[in-house]
Structure formats: structure tokens, C-alpha cells
Write a structure and sequence with these properties.
Layout lengths: L11 E4 L7 H10 L3 E6 L2 H15 L4 E5 L5 H9 L6 E4 L24 H27 L4 E6 L28 H21 L4 E8 L9 H9 L13 H8 L10 E4 L7
Parallel strand pairs: 1-2, 1-4, 2-3, 4-5, 5-6, 6-7
Helix pairs in contact: 1-7, 3-4, 4-5
Length: 273
């Protein structure tokens, strides 16, 4: 019988930013193919809540949770020291300012008036977090002969955002919603880091790839904005929340055993236009 190349039985996956929208779905993908997950988040209550939900859904022992602030290396080291092994790291944590239900952006988030504080805070979780977590957990992987790192970037690591999506009638120009440069710049950097780490660890059993998703529909997004986003996509819709699970399993498993340094774009064709 041919082995199941998507099988993750016995694999342990650490997921950062697991209290958000996609983190729990990444976890479900791992568990549904035999693995167990370590949910981490700077909001410890959210991480506990998500782990409890997964254990109720899939069985006790499917998930555990830890407090971890990816901008503080000591908290990452603390988690790593409590784990026997790590086979998979999903660098999912990011600071993504949500503008869909905003009544206007702070001037500090716009390029013309962005403060140094906003810039540094905006890139920290994505850029510093990806670096620190990759550093700490790669060392953990090397203890057991290798592993897989999956960095979560964005379709906006391949194209610039169309700021027209976020505009609202009746707001002055300096208060119009924008996707801040901090998000875009840090996600582009994640793709670059992916390629660097892929070549750095290629001969030591660690594969490093990147997943670039696009926007996921949720009920908080106003209908007019959903339609604007859909109009920029050849499939004429936003992503459903479960539609990245297959990509996660592919990248985490032996199905992608000859793949490293790749940015896998799953965006309904958005970046082809």
C-alpha cells in the first residue's frame, strides 16, 4: 500500500498568532491529518479558548496552548524549553490593522504622517516575530534532524494594495482608510526571509516555504467593501475561511518534500491581474 504523503501522524506543530482568524484553521488542518498542535498567542485567554475548542472537537490531547509574545524572544524560548520536539512551525502572528469597520484612520497610520512609533510597532510582530520564532524553533528542529517552517505572508507581498477598496464617503483625505505600509513592507520581508532561511537550512533537513493568502470573508466586512474586493479577483469573491487548510497540509507534509524557498500564492487569481 502506498504511503499517504499528506499524513502528519506524530508531528507537533507550533502555531503563532493562534488566537486570530486563520490560526485555528491552520491547527484544524494539522490535526485532521494526524498531528498535534501547540497554540501560542500574546492573548493567553484566546489561546486557551481555541485549544479547548479543538480538544472538544477532535479529542483530548489534540491541542495545548501557551502564552507567547513573538516580539519578546524570552517568551519564545520559554515555550520551546517546555516542548519535547517541534516538527512544524507556522509563523502566523502579524499586526494587521483592520480598516473595514473603521470610522477613519489615525493620521499616524498614513504614510505622509506615520510616526516612528507606529512604524516600529507595525512591523514588529510580523518581521521580528518571524525572525525570533524561526531562530528558536529551528534550533529545536535541528535537535531531531529537521522540520518544516511555514511563513504566512500575504497577496500584498506580491502586489501593492488598492487603497480605493477602503475609501469612505464623507471623510477628509487625511482620514481616509488605508492599508498601512507597515503591513505591506513586513509581509514582503517575510518572503525574503523565507528564501534566505530555505537556502540556509537546505542541507540540514529544514524546509522553509511561504503561504500568501488573500482576504477572508467575515460578517464584519461591509457588503460594499466585499464587492469591491471581489471585483479585483478573477473568481469574483473573497476566500472562505477553510480554503487555506489544503495549502497548509501540503506545505507541512511530505507532499511538498522537494519544495523549499517557495512562496505559494493562494488568492483566487488576484495577483494575476
Amino acid at each position: 500500500m502506498q504511503n499517504n504523503i499528506f499524513d502528519l501522524t506524530g508531528k507537533v506543530a507550533v502555531i503563532t498568532g493562534a488566537g486570530g482568524i486563520l490560526g485555528p484553521k491552520h491547527a484544524e488542518a494539522i490535526i485532521e491529518h494526524g498531528g498535534t498542535v501547540v497554540l501560542t498567542d500574546y492573548n493567553e485567554d484566546k489561546a486557551i479558548q481555541k485549544a479547548n475548542f479543538l480538544n472538544e472537537k477532535y479529542g483530548e490531547g489534540s491541542a495545548i496552548s501557551f502564552y507567547m509574545d513573538v516580539t519578546k524572544k524570552d517568551t519564545i524560548v520559554s515555550v520551546a524549553e517546555q516542548l519535547d520536539k517541534v516538527d512544524i512551525l507556522i509563523n502566523n502572528a502579524a499586526k494587521d490593522p483592520k480598516v473595514e469597520d473603521s470610522k477613519g484612520m489615525s493620521p499616524s497610520s498614513r504614510f505622509e504622517t506615520m510616526t516612528q512609533e507606529y512604524w516600529e510597532e507595525g512591523i514588529s510582530a510580523t518581521l521580528h516575530g518571524t525572525f525570533f520564532c524561526s531562530q528558536v524553533f529551528a534550533n529545536k528542529m535541528l535537535e531531531n534532524g529537521g522540520g518544516v517552517i511555514i511563513n504566512i505572508a500575504s497577496c500584498l507581498a506580491n502586489i501593492a494594495p488598492d487603497q480605493r477598496i477602503y475609501r469612505q464617503d464623507g471623510l477628509e483625505e487625511d482620514m481616509q482608510n488605508v492599508k498601512p505600509i507597515t503591513y505591506v513592507a513586513s509581509k514582503w520581508a517575510v518572503v525574503g526571509m523565507t528564501k534566505y532561511l530555505a537556502t540556509y537550512f537546505a542541507d540540514r533537513g529544514i524546509r522553509v516555504n511561504c503561504l500568501s493568502p488573500t482576504g477572508v470573508w467575515n460578517e464584519r466586512i461591509p457588503e460594499h467593501m466585499v464587492q469591491r474586493i471581489a471585483n479585483l479577483n478573477p473568481m469574483n469573491r473573497m476566500a472562505h475561511i477553510d480554503e487555506y487548510k489544503g495549502a497548509i497540509v501540503f506545505l507541512a507534509s511530505d507532499a511538498s518534500s522537494y519544495m523549499t524557498g517557495t512562496n505559494l500564492i493562494v488568492d483566487g487569481g488576484k495577483t494575476t491581474w
